[in-house]
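Feature request, filed as a ticket because there's no other form

It would be nice if the structure record came with a short human-readable summary line next to the tokens. Right now we just get the raw output. Example of a typical job, pasted below so the devs can see what we mean:
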Amino acid sequence: MPVQSLSRRRLLRMSAATATLAAGGTAGFAQLAFAQRKKDAPINLDDLLKPGALPDLILGKADAPCTIIEYASMTCSHCGHFHTTVFDTIKTKYIDTGKVRFIMREFPLDTLAVAASMLARCAGGEKTIPLIGVFFAKQDDWAFQRSNQIPELFKIAQQVGFTKDSFDKCLTDQPLYDKIVEGRERASKDFGVDATPTFFINGKRLQDAPTLEAFDKAIGEIVKS
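Raw output as currently delivered:
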């Protein structure tokens, strides 16, 4: 999905905005400007592999011959489709067999995406990536509704142990919010990310639609070399 202007009030002007979101609203960001890099500009692989303000979310062996980096938004339907129809096969076929190291990075398109990303990060440890998967699988329940988005997120978060207090505390974590936004700024400015999902395979941007066939081709060329 293409980048949208995040021209709303900040996600949470802390506790007051939490109440707005909890009531089903989507008051959000201040205007964010992104100095975007051209897609075809050369990318330094070492720079791309360096984590940003937040630790990378990683699956797979550190010495895998192929590294895939995904930039995704939790409210992106194309990202949801990839994670519910393609990702599990990639995990079984390539990640679990030591051929691919998969790195997930946030590139939120809107307020709600930041909220979901914050919750996934707050879940912590081995709960983070599975919670991301649940959020994608249940997008219809929360991401595409006109109201009650935050209460629906809370219902999902409860499944991994969130209480109302821990849920509200997470969504009012200003440093976490800032780091997620900083990660998006870096992706746009340094690596030309302008849509979600965007994939880099050993530093080369995947130009084709993220189908299993496209990944088979790109990964196969690397593993054989």
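Something like this underneath would help us a lot:
Strands lie at 57-59, 66-72, 100-106, 198-201, 204-205.
The chain has one domain: 43-224.
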